[in-house]
Specification:
This protein is α/β, with parallel strands linked by helices. It has one domain: Rossmann fold. It is built from five helices and five strands. Strands 2-1-3-4-5 form a five-stranded parallel sheet, with helices on both faces. The chain is globular, with a radius of gyration of 13 Å. The N and C termini lie close together (12 Å).
């Protein structure tokens, strides 16, 4: 498997630092972190990312709105987006899927855990959508 190049869009410094630290050290992934959807779009234009992991709530818009602007209904998605949220998933899942979100991960207590669920979702999405040829 390739080492996934991940763009993390998370406005919480603590959560961002924790996700980057654990996914890089424990799961061998490469992450770039930004705080806003606007920063994410700029990085995507200039970088080569395999997947975007985005918090639901951002200072300038929601993660769903960012996914919609990146993928605009493309199937397969231009860039896979994993929504990382502390919100209950059921009420937002259908709309998020329609707007370009590829996968969901509930934050729950991930800040104190080894983030196996998030790492697994990233690997599954990369295997499914990233051309490694």
């Amino acid at each position: 498997m390739i080492t996934p190049n991940i763009l993390l869009v998370e406005d919480s410094d603590f959560m961002s630092m924790r996700v980057v630290e654990v996914l890089e050290a424990t799961h061998g992934m490469s992450l770039t972190a930004v705080k806003t959807a606007e920063e994410a779009r700029t990085r995507i234009e200039t970088g080569d990312f395999d997947v975007v992991v985005v918090n639901y709530e951002l200072p300038d818009e929601t993660g769903i709105e960012l996914a919609d602007s990146l993928n605009a209904g493309d199937e397969p998605p231009e860039i896979p987006v994993i929504l990382l949220t502390g919100r209950e998933l059921e009420p937002i899942a259908k709309k998020a899927s329609e707007k370009g979100v590829t996968e969901f991960v509930y934050k729950g207590d991930h800040a104190a855990a080894d983030m196996d669920v998030l790492a697994n979702r990233i690997k599954v999405v990369v295997d499914a959508y990233v051309d490694t040829d």
